[in-house]
Amino acid sequence: MPYSAEISRASPTAFLFLLDQSASMQDPFGGAEQKGDAAPSKARVLADTVNDLLRNLVLRCAKDEGVRDYFHVGVLGYGERVQPLVEPAAGHGAPGELVPISALADRPKRMGERLEEDGDGSERRVKFPVWFDPQAKNGTPMCQALDQAAQTARRWIDAHPRSFPPVAVNVTDGEATDGEPLRYAQQLRSFATDDGEALLFNVHLSESEEPAVELPSAPGELPPEEYAEALFQMSSRLPFAMRSAAESEGYRVDLDTRGFVFNADPGALVRFLEIGTRPSNLR
Amino acid sequence: MGGRERGSTEALRWRAFGISKEGAAAGDYEDAFAVSGDAGAGVPFRAALADGATESVFARHWAQLLADGFASDGAAIFAEKRPAAQAAWADAVDDPSGALPWYTAAKVADGAFATLLGLSLRPGERAWQAASVGDGNLFHLREGALRRAWPRDDAEGDAFVLATDAAAAWLLRTGPAAALDWATHDAFSEAVRHARSEGLLENDDTTVAVVHIK
To answer: Residues 109 to 168 of B: which have CB under 8 A from any A CB?
Structure first.
């Protein structure tokens, strides 16, 4: 069965996050204008959400002796230019390569502190890591970002031919300004390990107050926009373990369910990132 | 697996086997086993298995505290003796100087998790009692034949086999009497290796304890 490789230190998997950093990411989420100027920008929400996700990925790998390298991680921003937002330490892989999660854990850009509610209602101070800050500038070079992600995935697969294949999650609020991304998406998804083809999921952030379309199985479920259909076609079907994760989050899924959310609000973004990073059980 | 691996009393002999999941270092083993000291008159013999959760940190230590707690206090470890065990775990992982990295500190704050299965025997009275939280299993055999698998279905007898989750699923499939034949740890390791390669045993920490009534 594809997408069932056991994930271990000897056989890790890879996560690649592609984050839109175009100028429109300065705007708040759809419908938030009425709430006043204090509404955080899409760029801010996305940076906070992905920093949080990276923290959770680290915690899933943390054991008594340190962080086990079950995952290799990359974060690519695309806006003013295409740039890696996390980098391997000097001497641990070429710039632009994926970072073992233990190295990521030990090298956040800085530690922040916030109050979190405990189970019993009291509050405790919790340190949280920040790897990158929000940015929003210029156009949307999504094709170039997908192309870079594909090359990174291909090199990683060469070194890990039997692993659960890389999972790429692209989060954007608009159309590519550098060409037709479907071709680049297909290229990325054509690289495969023995366990299956690389997976590409897409999250489109809301510009309107329309309700989100989460995890559709057919284009008919989408609003009649060419752009929505293109992102749908770019998105992989969810493998078994992620369908289970989606079901336990309350979604109805089938064999055709795509890893795609259109018009996502912040809640839908968080839910989807959680589902898309549940490849299978860790060993 | 550390600690004692075999022993006997006037009325019984016991033996424990444990092996970590394949591809993991021996130090990654997170099951725990404990037996009571030599039972005095009127005191039952106790054996306990605990399975520390992979998701938590210092789970092996918590599993050992629970197994030791059952061995010395019986089912009270599930109730009035539990807070002391929790305090012992918290003391052991306490980090007053803040030396732990942020991720270890965050996981310590979440606590640790383990299953626990305990068996109390009074061979003189031909009586036994078992208590469990989680997916550990107990098999009761007589003359090599399974009398009862608990809590999987619905006595007095002559052998008991305690097993953690993956080991129990395997023994249910192939017959728990096989455990009575392991004379050495090598025999156990070989059976585990074979069962894993045949797909009969999930790759997990695997712990089995056998108690024979004489």
So the answer is: 109
